Amino acid sequence: MNEPSGNKPFVWPIRVYYEDTDAQGLVYYANYFKFMERARTEWIRSLGIEQDVMLNDERRCFVVVESQASFIAPGKFNDELVATARMSAHTKATFMIEQNIYRNSLDGELLCKGTTKAAFINADTLKPLRLPSVLLEDPES
Predict the structure, then answer these.
(1) Beta strands 110-122 and 60-71, pairing class
(2) Would residue 45 count as lying in a domain?
(3) Which of 74, 91, 114, 115 could covalently link to 69 via disulfide, CB atoms 3.0 to 4.6 Å apart?
(4) Domain region containing 102
(5) Closest C-alpha among 70, 105, 79 to residue 21
(6) Going along the chain, which residue ranges are E strands?
């Protein structure tokens, strides 16, 4: 896999709602994956890719093929969190996204550290496609 050079993480704010917590008032572990999904979706949208249009009009889509997370500290009801998404490596048809969730800000307490591997595919044949070039461009240039 190739590593992109010096890209900053995309940051998406999240508020912990009551529905996100378990009986102890802590974020239920599976919801961290939902928070990471929201950050990935918004990151892709920020690059100008509307996934519903891409699927319906172009018959192309992204699919998650692998995801993992380490739960470091609990989020709590009413916390303000930030979830990040940053491409850490890619091949022609797949990309790895480093994802972290912090309390309050990027300088806040790290609650969850994860990675997600996604592939770009033809929605009809389910065969891999070359990643959209906008994913590989350096946003700093």
Answers:
(1) antiparallel
(2) yes
(3) 114
(4) 10-132
(5) 79
(6) 10-15, 60-71, 80-90, 94-103, 110-122
| CA distances for 4 relative to 39, 61, 138, angstroms | 19, 21, 8
Cα end-to-end distance, the chain, whole Å: 22
**Predicted TM-score (pTM) of this structure:** 0.90
Burial of residue 17, with CB atoms counted within 10 A of its CB: 0-12 exposed, 13-18 middle, 19 or more buried: exposed
Give me the chain's average pLDDT, please. 93
Number of domains in the chain: 1
Q: Predicted confidence band at 137 (pLDDT cuts at 50, 70, 90)?
A: confident
Instruction: Give φ, ψ of 90 to 5 degrees.
Output: -155, 155
Look up 20 and say whether it is catalytic.
no
Considering 20, 22, 57, 138, which one is annotated as catalytic? Answer: 22
Tell me, what CATH number does 123's domain have? 3.10.129.10
